[in-house]
Amino acid sequence: MEYLLELAASPTAWIALATLVVMEIVLGIDNLIFISILTNKLPVAHRAKARRIGISMALVLRLGLLSTVAWIVQLTEPVIEVFGQAFSWKDMILIAGGLFLLWKATKEIHHSVDPVSQAEQLEEGVSSRVSLGFAAAIGQILMLDIVFSIDSIITAVGMTEHLPIMIIAVIAAVLVMLLAAEPLAKFINDNPTVVMLALGFLIMIGMTLIAEGFGAHVPKGYVYAAMAFSAAIEGLNMLSRRARQKRAAVEA
After folding, report:
1. For the residues 234-244, what does the mean pLDDT come to?
2. Does residue 54 lie in a domain region?
3. Is 242 domain-assigned?
4. Number of structural domains the chain divides into
5. 162: helix, coil or strand?
6. Residue 231 included in any domain
7. Whole-number Å distance between alpha carbons of 152 and 59
């Protein structure tokens, strides 16, 4: 209790907490985009439940990893060397997660633009947006939750040594994810062009994870600045389309 009171009275601890909360929320965007895209492939009745389960698993994984901080730190130690390049468990997990994101995003893009695939589904009486089983969706969300959780916790460990600060930051970030999940998923579902943009984000995030795994540090600021710029351009395109639709309605 005395330790917690000392932290509460420390301005440095509050600054560290605020900084870490922002960092964890930003890192959670990747996780949330993937969950939103994946759950939108489910039947409407199952989407909210799948999102809640996915985000809850993210919280459980992050808190579980925080309870094994000593083991998490060891994940950054090299375990194998290939052609002179040393790899730690963290590196291999990031590379595997990046490859999975590339595969998943490419597959979804192909599914979205391939008229043959969509025609086959329509012939079978299946909506092109509903093409994933609940268990399969949860399994894929869990796989990426593990990757994003490890990256998130290693970032937290690198920013502060105080476990209570890490726990509060993680819980705050996941609560923000929980609140933003429904509006984000609905927005993506209602705007098909945003789906393609989000899939492009996943490809960029996947390449970033692979680069990080091979030891090439990519500043997160550049990645999120590119995502913000692309989102701003898409926002202008959406406003332009709505203006044209209104003009067409008035002329009609």
Report:
1. 86
2. yes
3. no
4. 1
5. coil
6. no
7. 11
CA–CA gap between residue 99 and residue 203 (Å, rounded): 9
Range of the domain at 209: 2-76+84-218
pTM for the whole structure: 0.70
3-state secondary structure of 80: strand
Judge residue 9's burial from the number of C-beta atoms within 10 Å of its C-beta, 0-12 exposed, 13-18 middle, 19 or more buried: exposed
- Contact present, 38 and 23 (Cβ < 8 Å): no
Express each pLDDT in 39-88 by its tens digit: 888 888 888 898 999 888 888 888 888 877 667 767 778 888 888 888 98
Neighbouring C-beta atoms of residue 65, cutoff 10 Å: 22
Phi (first) and psi of residue 87, to 5 degrees = -125, 135
Burial class of residue 205 in the structure, from the number of CB atoms within 10 Å of its CB (0-12 exposed, 13-18 middle, 19+ buried): buried
The CA distances from residue 115 to 122, 124, 125, in Å, are 10, 14, 15
d(CA 217, CA 107): 27
For residue range 178-211, list pLDDT tens digits in order.
Answer: 888 888 888 887 777 787 888 888 888 888 889 8
Residue the block writes with tokens 């098909």 = 192
173 domain-assigned:
yes
